[in-house]
Specification:
Elements: H1 21-37, E1 52-57, H2 63-74, E2 78-83, H3 95-103, E3 109-114, H4 119-126, E4 130-136, H5 142-155, E5 163-167, H6 174-185, E6 189-193, E7 209-211, H7 214-220, E8 223-226, H8 231-234, H9 242-249, H10 253-257, E9 264-266, H11 279-282, H12 289-308, H13 310-315
Amino acid sequence: MAKQTTAFSRKHLIGLSDYTRDEILHILETARSFREVLERPIKRVPILTGITVINLFFEASTRTRISFELAQKRLSADTINFTANTSSVKKGETLRDTAQNIEAMKVDMVVVRHSSPGVPLFLSRVLKSNIINAGDGAHEHPTQALLDMYSLLERIPDLKGIRICIVGDIGHSRVALSNIFGLTCLGADVAVCGPPTLIPRHIEQLGIRVFYKLDEALAFADVLNVLRIQLERQGVGLFPSLREYRDQFGITRERLENFPKDWIIMHPGPINRGVEIDSDVADGNFSIILNQVTNGVAVRMAVLYLLSGREREQTQ
């Protein structure tokens, strides 16, 4: 990763679709220094002292919410956690009123997760705070894609030309879209694979390949990013059964052995073991799934730091 010489100028992270290669590499290079902080006996630096961050989560989350909270505490920011189930949203308050009332308490940064696409963009237009998208519907999940790319770059010096296939429920996945934008921006050769009912129409227009048979995808790829089946978003059955999905698209040791390679296996979590991926693959030597989780804290530290403007202050 080439080191950037100019300070980061973005205010928000809504998605990766309009981020440049240099901006993505800047985030990943910054994350490298924060990754080293996580190995210290005292895993805290005073970089965001005086900054208040609210985690505005309208959807259930474990890894992403805890990862952001840890990142904020590692940077010495003041952290507030918002839960929709115990808020005035239950009384009918609008999203705009909720967000503006919170910001009036002198909040500086908002990390938002919502089931509706476009909420982070909306908040960036009605608030003065920095907005970070922690997942909006089936739109984007940019910090997940960034940590995925960082985790790959720990194993591979350059992603240019690396063949990566995203396997699973592409149509309902915000992870897939952010990964497609980020990976193609860094020059990777990206494909998706899954049942036709779970692949969006015209997705190949994003400059990627599409496979409807897993064996074809396995012959193509060196890296697999495996996604779970999001039954909660589908509404109706888009394939006969989970058993049939596993038979056709599940990542098993036997399938991988048919294509002997030095595989890299990824998964954003949560994992449906025995459905999209078997335990002996998820926990096996090819897996970097737990590395992804650890790296998520460092990447989110980098995003918080860069968007806060503290880097610009230090370079002036």
